[in-house]
Amino acid sequence: MGYYKAGFDVTGVDIANQKKYPFAFIKADVKDILRDHKFLKSFDAIVASPPCQLFSQTKHLRDSQGRDTKKINMIPETIEGLMMSGKPWIVENVPGAPLDNPVQVCGSAFGMRIRRHRVFQSNIHLVGTSCYHEDQTRVVGVYGQINDKIPGGGHTAKSLQEGREVMGIDWMPWTSLVEAVPPNYTEYLGKQLVRFV
What we know:
There is one protein chain. The chain is an alpha/beta fold. The protein has a single domain (2-196), classed as Rossmann fold (3-Layer(aba) Sandwich), CATH 3.40.50. It is 28% helix and 12% strand. The chain contains eight helices and six strands. The chain has helices at residues 2-5, 30-35, 37-41, 59-64, 75-85, 160-167, 174-177, 183-193; strands at 11-14, 24-27, 46-48, 89-93, 103-105, 118-122. The longest helix has 11 residues, at 75-85. The protein is globular and about 50 Å long. The model has no long low-confidence stretch (mean pLDDT 90).
C-alpha cells in the first residue's frame, strides 16, 4: 500500500493465495520468479521481503506457542536474483538479518504507536529514520497472539481492530498482520525509490 501511495502500480507475488490483497497478484514460488530475469526486467523496480523468522527476536515465542518457525535464509538468493534484474530494488527484513549496510526505519518516526524496527538494503541510496521512542505514548505490540501480556509490562494489541489501526492496515488477518511492513514505511521508502525509475 505504501508503494502505491508513493506512485507505483503494484503487483504482489506469493506462494500462497492472498484473497484480500488489494492489488494485482501472482501466485507463484518466488524462487522461480527470481530466476526469470525477463519477467523481473518487465518491472520498473522490485521490492522483496524474504522470510524473517530465522532472524526475528520473536522466533522463540513462535516456537513456544506451537507455531513452526521457518528456519530458512532466502536473503542471499533474493539479493542475487534482484541484482541480475538490473532494476532498482529494496530488500526488507528484521534487525539482525544478514543485510549489507542496511538502513533502519522505526514507527516512532511517523508518530505511530508501534516501534517495529525494520531494516532495508538496496542498490540505490536510501535514508532511514531516527527513533523517537521517548515521544511515544503507550506502545502496542503486533506479534505473537492478540492480547498477550509482555514480560516487563505492556501487551500486544487487544484486538484485531487495534492491531490494524496501529499498523495502518485495514485488510489483513492477524496472521498476516504480525509479519507485515506498515505502509508508512514503504511509502517513505517508495518516495525515495521513485526517483530512480
